[in-house]
Write a structure and sequence with these properties.
Largest sheet: none
Distance between the termini: 43 Å
Strand content: under 5%
Order of helices and strands: HHHHHH
Radius of gyration: 16 Å
Length: 119
């Protein structure tokens, strides 16, 4: 995939996320109607200071922002942990994927362990 195509795919995801935000009264209460003109970074900064920072939609915004940053740095498609190339099928399924399958499995295992320790 070309950088232009990847950027287009990520931009379409951003448009979809903005539609979801517009359908969420809780998000609109925090962001206000001007959210449509805010940059992705501005949305994330505002939401990070609210009770919505744990919401799955906020997590998806962060993943999208990370994917754009990786693309800008020429690192898109590389695992954030081990820096190997992420499988094309994996990226096709989720263009904001940050980890290869091995590192994702390891991360999920560690995360589950952390959740058990906090209870």
């Amino acid at each position: 995939m070309s950088t232009t195509h990847i950027r287009q795919v990520l931009s379409e995801l951003e448009a979809d996320l903005r539609i979801e935000i517009g359908e969420q009264p809780l998000f609109l209460a925090v962001l206000g109607p001007h959210y449509v003109t805010q940059s992705l970074g501005e949305l994330i900064d505002t939401l990070a200071q609210s009770h919505l920072a744990e919401h799955p939609l906020f997590c998806r915004l962060n993943q999208l922002d990370a994917a754009f940053c990786q693309l800008d740095l020429g690192l898109y498609g590389l695992c954030a942990d081990c820096e190997t190339v992420i499988d094309a099928k994996r990226l096709s399924h989720n263009p904001t994927e940050q980890r290869c399958a091995t590192c994702a499995e390891h991360y999920q295992h560690e995360h589950r362990h952390e959740l058990r320790l906090s209870h």
